[in-house]
Amino acid sequence: MNRLFKTLKKKAAVAMVAAMAMGCLWAPPARSGEMAVDLSALIYETQKASRAMEDVLLAWWVPQELWLMFLSQSQSVSEEEKQKYLEIMDPYMVFLVVDGTIGEDGRPHFQAREDVLNALVLEDAAGNKYKTLRGTEISQEAKDFLSRVFPSFARSLGPLGNNLYYAVFTSKNSKGEPIANVFTEGAFVLHMAKRSFRWRTPLGALVPPKHCPITGEELNGGWKYNPWNGAKLD
Which of 35, 64, 99, 104 could lock onto 111 through a cystine, CB 3.0 to 4.6 A? Predict the structure, then answer.
């Protein structure tokens, strides 16, 4: 991974942390218990990046839980308003994306917004594919919410923020079922122009840790097996 992209990803993580008043732990909603969440771990699990030296690619899934974390850090947002915003964003899956290439001159060259969005395809666990939503396919309330929160991420990246775009997809399949649930087993893929990135759920940062029956060590709650000895986790 090139140095420029390492800087980009680091700045993206810092942007989220700064936007949330530098909070490191967060008490998630009641549906996931009272467990405190490691913000840096959640950011790590929701961000994907290309390791190719010539790429400057970032795909950041922003699930409802991250929106709630963002809103919870603002004292000016009431509980009623938080729930309203979550309801507004519930029909959508949102990604923050950067798509660029390091040219022969050693400088990054980024794709235009429309080219980036046109190339994106979301694929669910059943192989169904979805294109980005545009125009009237996105509610005005959702557009207003994104226009309110997105600039804070873009500004934190400096000049690179000019090449950070948000992409909106439906959050439900044709049966009305969630494409992704951070607390249950599943997977989905975001296809970009040159690379594809896969997310698996549950997200370990949002569920209780598991323990190896052989070593007793505490491991990621999203794992089924200990990656070092193959033991099934409790």
Answer: 99
Is the domain of 111 the same as that of 130? yes
CB 231 within 8 A of CB 212: yes
- CA 13 – CA 40 distance, rounded (Å): 8
Domain co-membership, 79 together with 99: yes
Burial 7-29 (b: 16+ CB within 10 A, else e): ebbebbbebbbebbeeeeebebe
d(CA 121, CA 128): 10
Rounded to an integer, what distance in angstroms lies between the CA atom of residue 47 and that of residue 42? 9
Domain of 89 in residue numbering reads as 3-202
Backbone angles phi, psi at 212, to 5 degrees: -80, 125
- Count CB neighbours of 113 within 10 A: 16
Q: What is the value of pTM for the model shown?
A: 0.81
Are residues 231 and 189 located together in one domain of the fold?
no
Q: What is the pLDDT of residue 213?
A: 83
Q: Say if residue 173 is in the same domain as residue 142.
A: yes
Closest residue by Cα to residue 133 from 171, 104, 86: 171
**Residue from 228, 194, 224, 231 nearest 50 by CA:** 194
Q: Higher model confidence: residue 26 or residue 62?
A: 62
